[in-house]
């Protein structure tokens, strides 16, 4: 993107009136020139990410939103759910999503959101001993977090973003790490009709809901081989999603060096379950070129293969009752 000289981007600077005076006519001239340059050259100032707040059932919730300066109509939305002790703004920027959004070509950009989980102790500031956590529905969720309607928050946030940016509601994706990965598994089950695909990494549990997803949900499940907790539950999570999505048997497929990749397909509604293990990696969302893969890029490549067949209904949350033997599902 071409950049305008800093002088032209600063109000009242760049065209100065000789001999003093307020220079108002010349400031107007500068503004006019700036607008003409934007119109003729297609120049647009960069949009920094912003914090937004919405009310969900009487509770104020916050999320970080990054909208690229150049955004095509009907852009995809990626929601990145942070892990315990992190925050939405940190993972959008630190995990490389913001850079990815800004580096895409003009007709291939994306909007990225990083919502904030709930503090364990609401009357204290965030700290190492007072982390933000997601209500993934498990029995070990702290009491204050267990009261949080995080599913309702994500639904409300998507609607709020749709009023701010021109997004395609058929291309809403969720990625999550650790506690955020647990939450991604919950969202895939409860609002699968609103999500085109999900990516859950470093998940430590998957709590099954009373009803299965309303559709087959494409999912990328990943963990590091040195992440003992995540690796311990990985087979159960993969099995659960294979059953929920009515998938065929899993097959090993070629993968990058130090990566093991297992794919289950075909699944219902043309979905897919991918299980990815990164050798020599501990509990982390990989971002470095020195690591087996960069999960942000891997997730985005996966997401781009899927979109909903139609704009989701506002009432779509849970699917029909299970038509399978609950005994097959891991807990």
Can you tag this structure with a few keywords?
single chain; 331 residues; alpha/beta; Rossmann fold; two-stranded antiparallel ribbon; disordered C terminus
**CATH architecture identity of the largest domain:** 3-Layer(aba) Sandwich
Q: What is the number of beta strands?
A: 12
Describe the main β-sheet briefly. Answer: 10 strands, mixed
**What is the gyration radius calculated from CA atoms?**
22 Å
What is the CATH homologous superfamily assignment of the largest domain? Alpha/Beta hydrolase fold, catalytic domain
Q: How large is the count of helical segments?
A: 9
Tell me what portion of residues adopts beta-strand conformation.
Answer: 15-25%
CATH class of the largest domain: Alpha Beta
Number of spatially distinct domains: 2
Question: How would you explain this protein's 3D organization?
Answer:
This protein has helices spanning 6-9, 24-41, 88-94, 97-103, 143-146, 150-164, 179-190, 228-244, 295-303; strands spanning 50-56, 59-66, 75-81, 111-115, 118-119, 132-133, 167-177, 197-201, 219-224, 250-253, 259-264, 273-278. It is of the alpha/beta class and 331 residues long. It folds into 2 domains: 6-41; 50-328, 3-Layer(aba) Sandwich (Rossmann fold). The strands form 2 sheets. Strands 1-2-4-3-7-8-9-12-11-10 form a 10-stranded mixed sheet, sandwiched between helices. Strands 5-6 form a two-stranded antiparallel sheet. The radius of gyration is 22 Å and the shape is globular. Mean pLDDT is 84; it is low at 1-46 and 318-331.
């Amino acid at each position: 993107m071409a950049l305008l000289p800093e002088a032209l981007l600063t109000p009242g600077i760049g065209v100065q009136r000789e001999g003093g005076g307020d220079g108002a006519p010349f400031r107007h001239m500068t503004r006019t020139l700036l607008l003409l340059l934007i119109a003729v050259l297609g120049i647009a100032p960069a949009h920094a990410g912003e914090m937004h707040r919405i009310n969900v059932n009487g509770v104020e919730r916050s999320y970080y939103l990054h909208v690229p300066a150049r955004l095509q109509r009907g852009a995809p939305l990626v929601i990145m759910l942070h892990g315990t002790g992190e925050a939405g703004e940190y993972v959008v920027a630190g995990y490389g999503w913001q850079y990815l959004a800004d580096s895409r070509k003009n007709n291939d950009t994306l909007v990225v959101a990083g919502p904030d989980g709930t503090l364990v102790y609401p009357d204290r500031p965030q700290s190492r001993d007072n982390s933000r956590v997601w209500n993934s529905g498990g029995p070990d969720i702290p009491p204050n977090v267990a009261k949080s309607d995080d599913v309702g928050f994500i639904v409300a946030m998507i609607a709020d973003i749709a009023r701010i940016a021109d997004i395609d509601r058929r291309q809403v994706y969720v990625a999550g790490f650790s506690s955020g990965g647990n939450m991604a598994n919950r969202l895939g089950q409860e609002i699968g009709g609103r999500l085109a695909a999900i990516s859950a990494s470093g998940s430590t549990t998957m709590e099954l809901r009373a009803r299965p997803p309303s559709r087959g949900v494409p999912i990328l499940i990943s963990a590091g081989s040195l992440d003992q907790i995540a690796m311990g539950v990985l087979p159960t999570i993969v099995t659960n999603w294979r059953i929920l999505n009515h998938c065929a048997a899993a097959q090993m497929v070629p993968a990058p060096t130090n990566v093991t990749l297992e794919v289950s397909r075909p699944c219902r509604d043309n979905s897919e379950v991918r299980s990815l293990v990164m050798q020599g990696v501990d509990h982390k969302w990989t971002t470095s070129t020195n690591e087996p893969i960069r999960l942000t890029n891997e997730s985005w490549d996966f997401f781009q293969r899927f979109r909903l067949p139609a704009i989701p209904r506002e009432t779509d949350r849970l699917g029909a009752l299970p038509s399978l033997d609950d005994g097959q599902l891991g807990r």
